[in-house]
Design brief:
Layout: H1 2-91, H2 96-123, H3 125-131, H4 133-146, E1 151-157, H5 165-186, E2 190-197, E3 201-208, H6 222-233, E4 237-242, E5 248-255, H7 258-261
Parallel strand pairs: 1-2
Antiparallel strand pairs: 2-3, 3-5, 4-5
Length: 262
Amino acid sequence: MLQKEQILLIVYFIVVILFLVTFAIIFFVAFQRRKNKLLLERFKAQQRFDEELQNSKLEIQEQTLKNVSWELHDNIGQLLSTAVMQINILSTNLEPKIKESVQDIRGLVGDSLQEIRNLSKTLNHEVIQNIGLEKSIQVELDRFKKLNFLTPEFIVTGEELVINPKDEIIIYRIIQEFFSNTIKHAEASHLLVKLKYTPDDLTIVVQDDGIGYDMESVQANSGLLNMKSRAALINANLDCVSEPGKGVLLTLRYPFKYEDKI
Protein backbone atom coordinates (compact mmCIF):
# COMPACT_ATOMS: atom_id res chain seq x y z
CA MET A 1 0.00 0.00 0.00
CA LEU A 2 2.85 2.32 0.86
CA GLN A 3 4.55 1.59 -2.45
CA LYS A 4 1.34 2.42 -4.33
CA GLU A 5 1.04 5.74 -2.50
CA GLN A 6 4.64 6.52 -3.35
CA ILE A 7 3.96 5.81 -7.03
CA LEU A 8 0.87 8.01 -6.96
CA LEU A 9 2.87 10.75 -5.26
CA ILE A 10 5.59 10.52 -7.91
CA VAL A 11 2.98 10.61 -10.68
CA TYR A 12 1.39 13.61 -8.98
CA PHE A 13 4.72 15.44 -8.86
CA ILE A 14 5.42 14.57 -12.51
CA VAL A 15 2.01 15.91 -13.53
CA VAL A 16 2.58 19.09 -11.54
CA ILE A 17 6.03 19.54 -13.06
CA LEU A 18 4.66 18.92 -16.56
CA PHE A 19 1.88 21.41 -15.87
CA LEU A 20 4.37 24.00 -14.65
CA VAL A 21 6.67 23.39 -17.61
CA THR A 22 3.74 23.61 -20.04
CA PHE A 23 2.53 26.79 -18.36
CA ALA A 24 6.04 28.24 -18.51
CA ILE A 25 6.35 27.39 -22.20
CA ILE A 26 2.94 28.88 -22.99
CA PHE A 27 3.76 31.96 -20.96
CA PHE A 28 7.14 32.33 -22.70
CA VAL A 29 5.61 31.91 -26.16
CA ALA A 30 2.84 34.39 -25.36
CA PHE A 31 5.40 36.81 -23.94
CA GLN A 32 7.57 36.52 -27.05
CA ARG A 33 4.58 37.03 -29.32
CA ARG A 34 3.52 40.06 -27.34
CA LYS A 35 7.07 41.38 -27.38
CA ASN A 36 7.39 40.83 -31.14
CA LYS A 37 4.01 42.47 -31.71
CA LEU A 38 5.05 45.52 -29.70
CA LEU A 39 8.37 45.72 -31.53
CA LEU A 40 6.60 45.45 -34.88
CA GLU A 41 4.10 48.13 -33.89
CA ARG A 42 6.94 50.34 -32.72
CA PHE A 43 8.81 49.76 -35.97
CA LYS A 44 5.72 50.57 -38.06
CA ALA A 45 5.03 53.65 -35.96
CA GLN A 46 8.61 54.81 -36.53
CA GLN A 47 8.21 54.15 -40.24
CA ARG A 48 5.00 56.18 -40.34
CA PHE A 49 6.67 58.98 -38.40
CA ASP A 50 9.69 59.02 -40.73
CA GLU A 51 7.42 58.95 -43.77
CA GLU A 52 5.24 61.76 -42.46
CA LEU A 53 8.34 63.77 -41.60
CA GLN A 54 9.75 63.24 -45.07
CA ASN A 55 6.41 64.13 -46.67
CA SER A 56 6.26 67.30 -44.60
CA LYS A 57 9.77 68.24 -45.71
CA LEU A 58 8.84 67.62 -49.35
CA GLU A 59 5.66 69.67 -49.02
CA ILE A 60 7.63 72.55 -47.53
CA GLN A 61 10.24 72.27 -50.28
CA GLU A 62 7.56 72.18 -52.99
CA GLN A 63 5.78 75.20 -51.54
CA THR A 64 9.08 77.08 -51.33
CA LEU A 65 9.90 76.23 -54.95
CA LYS A 66 6.39 77.26 -55.96
CA ASN A 67 6.82 80.63 -54.23
CA VAL A 68 10.17 81.14 -55.94
CA SER A 69 8.52 80.24 -59.25
CA TRP A 70 5.85 82.89 -58.70
CA GLU A 71 8.46 85.48 -57.77
CA LEU A 72 10.47 84.72 -60.90
CA HIS A 73 7.46 84.75 -63.19
CA ASP A 74 5.49 87.64 -61.69
CA ASN A 75 8.17 90.01 -60.40
CA ILE A 76 11.41 89.45 -62.27
CA GLY A 77 9.55 88.37 -65.39
CA GLN A 78 7.44 91.52 -65.27
CA LEU A 79 10.52 93.70 -64.82
CA LEU A 80 12.19 92.12 -67.84
CA SER A 81 9.01 92.48 -69.89
CA THR A 82 8.92 96.18 -69.00
CA ALA A 83 12.60 96.48 -69.95
CA VAL A 84 11.85 94.97 -73.39
CA MET A 85 9.01 97.43 -73.90
CA GLN A 86 11.21 100.37 -72.89
CA ILE A 87 13.97 99.23 -75.27
CA ASN A 88 11.46 98.96 -78.10
CA ILE A 89 10.23 102.50 -77.44
CA LEU A 90 13.77 103.83 -77.13
CA SER A 91 14.98 102.20 -80.35
CA THR A 92 12.38 103.98 -82.54
CA ASN A 93 14.23 107.31 -82.32
CA LEU A 94 17.80 106.08 -82.69
CA GLU A 95 20.22 106.11 -85.57
CA PRO A 96 20.55 102.81 -87.50
CA LYS A 97 23.98 101.88 -86.08
CA ILE A 98 22.96 102.58 -82.50
CA LYS A 99 19.58 100.95 -83.10
CA GLU A 100 21.31 97.73 -84.15
CA SER A 101 23.27 97.62 -80.88
CA VAL A 102 20.13 98.34 -78.88
CA GLN A 103 18.33 95.51 -80.67
CA ASP A 104 21.14 93.16 -79.64
CA ILE A 105 20.56 94.23 -76.03
CA ARG A 106 16.83 93.70 -76.52
CA GLY A 107 17.58 90.19 -77.74
CA LEU A 108 19.62 89.42 -74.63
CA VAL A 109 16.90 90.77 -72.34
CA GLY A 110 14.28 88.80 -74.29
CA ASP A 111 16.33 85.61 -73.97
CA SER A 112 16.70 86.26 -70.24
CA LEU A 113 12.94 86.69 -69.96
CA GLN A 114 12.32 83.39 -71.71
CA GLU A 115 14.89 81.67 -69.51
CA ILE A 116 13.18 83.01 -66.39
CA ARG A 117 9.84 81.69 -67.65
CA ASN A 118 11.30 78.25 -68.43
CA LEU A 119 13.02 78.10 -65.05
CA SER A 120 9.81 79.06 -63.24
CA LYS A 121 8.04 76.15 -64.96
CA THR A 122 10.55 73.62 -63.66
CA LEU A 123 10.13 74.89 -60.09
CA ASN A 124 6.32 74.88 -59.91
CA HIS A 125 4.95 71.39 -59.28
CA GLU A 126 1.51 72.40 -60.59
CA VAL A 127 3.02 73.21 -63.98
CA ILE A 128 4.91 69.91 -63.96
CA GLN A 129 1.69 68.01 -63.23
CA ASN A 130 -0.08 69.84 -66.04
CA ILE A 131 2.52 69.20 -68.74
CA GLY A 132 3.63 65.77 -67.51
CA LEU A 133 6.94 64.11 -66.67
CA GLU A 134 8.29 63.75 -70.20
CA LYS A 135 7.56 67.33 -71.23
CA SER A 136 9.04 68.65 -67.97
CA ILE A 137 12.27 66.74 -68.60
CA GLN A 138 12.35 67.96 -72.19
CA VAL A 139 11.90 71.60 -71.06
CA GLU A 140 14.83 71.26 -68.66
CA LEU A 141 17.07 69.61 -71.28
CA ASP A 142 16.17 72.27 -73.86
CA ARG A 143 17.15 74.91 -71.32
CA PHE A 144 20.57 73.28 -70.83
CA LYS A 145 21.07 73.07 -74.60
CA LYS A 146 20.10 76.69 -75.14
CA LEU A 147 22.51 77.85 -72.44
CA ASN A 148 25.30 75.69 -73.93
CA PHE A 149 25.84 73.84 -70.67
CA LEU A 150 26.07 70.47 -72.43
CA THR A 151 24.54 68.36 -75.21
CA PRO A 152 21.41 66.53 -74.00
CA GLU A 153 19.88 63.35 -75.43
CA PHE A 154 16.38 62.17 -74.54
CA ILE A 155 15.05 58.70 -75.45
CA VAL A 156 11.61 57.31 -74.61
CA THR A 157 10.57 53.72 -75.33
CA GLY A 158 7.42 51.76 -74.59
CA GLU A 159 3.83 52.90 -74.20
CA GLU A 160 3.45 55.79 -71.79
CA LEU A 161 1.33 55.04 -68.73
CA VAL A 162 -0.30 57.46 -66.31
CA ILE A 163 1.71 58.00 -63.12
CA ASN A 164 0.29 59.05 -59.79
CA PRO A 165 0.68 62.89 -59.82
CA LYS A 166 2.42 63.00 -56.42
CA ASP A 167 4.81 60.24 -57.46
CA GLU A 168 5.44 62.04 -60.75
CA ILE A 169 6.63 65.13 -58.89
CA ILE A 170 8.99 63.05 -56.71
CA ILE A 171 10.41 61.28 -59.78
CA TYR A 172 11.01 64.61 -61.49
CA ARG A 173 12.70 66.09 -58.41
CA ILE A 174 15.05 63.08 -58.28
CA ILE A 175 15.99 63.63 -61.93
CA GLN A 176 16.29 67.37 -61.33
CA GLU A 177 18.66 66.70 -58.41
CA PHE A 178 20.85 64.65 -60.75
CA PHE A 179 20.76 67.46 -63.34
CA SER A 180 21.78 69.98 -60.70
CA ASN A 181 24.74 67.86 -59.57
CA THR A 182 25.80 67.38 -63.19
CA ILE A 183 25.72 71.09 -63.97
CA LYS A 184 27.51 72.08 -60.73
CA HIS A 185 30.17 69.40 -60.40
CA ALA A 186 30.43 66.96 -63.31
CA GLU A 187 32.09 69.12 -65.99
CA ALA A 188 30.15 66.97 -68.46
CA SER A 189 29.65 67.60 -72.17
CA HIS A 190 26.87 65.06 -72.72
CA LEU A 191 23.78 64.13 -70.71
CA LEU A 192 21.63 61.11 -71.59
CA VAL A 193 18.12 60.51 -70.25
CA LYS A 194 16.21 57.32 -71.10
CA LEU A 195 12.66 56.43 -70.08
CA LYS A 196 11.52 52.86 -70.65
CA TYR A 197 7.86 52.00 -70.01
CA THR A 198 6.69 48.43 -69.44
CA PRO A 199 3.30 47.23 -68.13
CA ASP A 200 4.89 46.73 -64.69
CA ASP A 201 7.33 49.58 -64.22
CA LEU A 202 9.06 52.67 -65.52
CA THR A 203 12.84 52.48 -65.70
CA ILE A 204 14.71 55.78 -65.89
CA VAL A 205 18.39 55.95 -66.76
CA VAL A 206 20.28 59.23 -66.45
CA GLN A 207 23.96 59.34 -67.35
CA ASP A 208 26.60 62.01 -67.81
CA ASP A 209 30.15 61.78 -69.16
CA GLY A 210 31.69 64.00 -66.50
CA ILE A 211 34.58 63.57 -64.11
CA GLY A 212 32.68 61.16 -61.85
CA TYR A 213 33.58 60.55 -58.22
CA ASP A 214 34.61 57.93 -55.69
CA MET A 215 31.43 56.23 -54.42
CA GLU A 216 32.84 55.64 -50.93
CA SER A 217 33.59 59.31 -50.44
CA VAL A 218 30.04 60.48 -51.25
CA GLN A 219 27.83 57.88 -49.56
CA ALA A 220 26.76 60.52 -47.05
CA ASN A 221 26.35 63.20 -49.73
CA SER A 222 23.15 65.15 -49.13
CA GLY A 223 22.16 65.09 -52.81
CA LEU A 224 22.45 61.32 -53.02
CA LEU A 225 20.62 60.88 -49.71
CA ASN A 226 17.83 63.16 -50.92
CA MET A 227 17.39 61.09 -54.07
CA LYS A 228 17.35 57.81 -52.14
CA SER A 229 14.92 59.04 -49.49
CA ARG A 230 12.55 60.35 -52.15
CA ALA A 231 12.76 57.09 -54.09
CA ALA A 232 11.87 55.15 -50.92
CA LEU A 233 8.69 57.22 -50.51
CA ILE A 234 7.31 55.89 -53.81
CA ASN A 235 8.69 52.35 -53.36
CA ALA A 236 11.13 52.91 -56.21
CA ASN A 237 14.54 51.29 -56.48
CA LEU A 238 17.39 53.75 -57.02
CA ASP A 239 20.95 52.85 -57.89
CA CYS A 240 23.76 55.33 -58.50
CA VAL A 241 27.14 54.24 -59.85
CA SER A 242 30.23 56.30 -60.56
CA GLU A 243 33.99 56.12 -60.84
CA PRO A 244 36.54 58.92 -61.16
CA GLY A 245 36.82 59.84 -64.82
CA LYS A 246 33.85 57.70 -65.92
CA GLY A 247 30.86 59.92 -65.22
CA VAL A 248 27.76 59.05 -63.21
CA LEU A 249 24.99 56.56 -63.97
CA LEU A 250 21.64 56.75 -62.18
CA THR A 251 19.02 54.03 -62.58
CA LEU A 252 15.56 54.46 -61.11
CA ARG A 253 12.93 51.72 -61.30
CA TYR A 254 9.42 52.88 -60.42
CA PRO A 255 6.85 50.03 -60.08
CA PHE A 256 3.37 50.86 -61.29
CA LYS A 257 0.55 50.39 -58.84
CA TYR A 258 -2.81 49.14 -60.00
CA GLU A 259 -4.43 52.57 -59.78
CA ASP A 260 -1.59 54.06 -61.87
CA LYS A 261 -2.59 51.88 -64.82
CA ILE A 262 -6.28 52.87 -64.83
